[in-house]
Amino acid sequence: MTLSDEELEEIALIEAELSSICRYSETAKNILQGRKFNKSRKLEDNITKGRRLSELTLEELEKLKEVTMLDRYKEDIQEEIDKRKKESFEEQLQNDNSIISFSEDEEEAHYKIDEDPLSSDSDINRWDFDNDGDKADEEGNKLLFDY
Questions:
Q1: DSSP class of residue 49?
Q2: For a tag on the chain, would you pick the N or C end, based on fewer CB atoms within 10 A?
Q3: Structural domain of 32
Q4: Is residue 115 part of a domain?
Q5: Distance between CA 13 and CA 16 in Å, rounded?
Q6: Is 50 among the domain residues?
């Protein structure tokens, strides 16, 4: 004789009342949970069809997360979903314009700079970095005395 799910739920309620009064095992509840678990496993198998989580689409992962009963498996599914939704670090920086492109073309360059020291006409060795009026020779050495 096989009981339906509704009959098992009624028996589970009665068993729950009995277990609160005395030590009574909740057999109907355990059978009902087993049936739910078996149904969820069949649904999981229908969704996955033997494929790994990495091979499933995002929609299939969402369905699988709703169907599964195992918390550890739900965590694995959520990690895979987060991995798919999360942009790569480089993409995220590029979207925020945080990556500087040093391309040859001025239009493609994402940076603004007043003067490019390597392509400017002035000699880099003659620059006075501390603005105190020091002079430097061709090798970049500071001159203590003017000749």
A1: T
A2: N
A3: 5-86
A4: no
A5: 5
A6: yes
Distance CA 92, CA 94 (A): 5
- The Cα 120–Cα 129 span in angstroms is 16
126 belongs to a structural domain:
no
Does residue 81 sit within a domain?
A: yes
Taking the C-alpha atoms of residue 126 and residue 117, their distance in angstroms, rounded to an integer, is 12
Q: Give just the sign of the alpha carbon dihedral 105, 107, 110, 111.
A: positive
Task: Record the pTM.
Answer: 0.46
Tokens 């009064």 found at: 21
Tens-place pLDDT, residues 114-134: 555 555 555 555 555 555 666
Question: Concatenated DSSP letters for 102-126?
Answer: --SSTTT-----S--TTTSSS-GGG
- Average predicted confidence (pLDDT) for the chain: 74
User: Could you tell me if 133 and 126 are in contact, meaning their C-beta atoms sit under 8 angstroms apart?
Assistant: no
What percent of the chain lies above the pLDDT cut of 90? 7
Spatial contact of 65 and 81, defined as CB atoms under 8 Å apart: yes
Give ∠ CA 11-16-19 in degrees, rounded to 5.
120
Question: Which residue from 10, 17, 47, 64 is spatially nearest to 32, judged by alpha carbons?
Answer: 10
- Tell the residue number behind the tokens 């001159």, with chain if given: 143
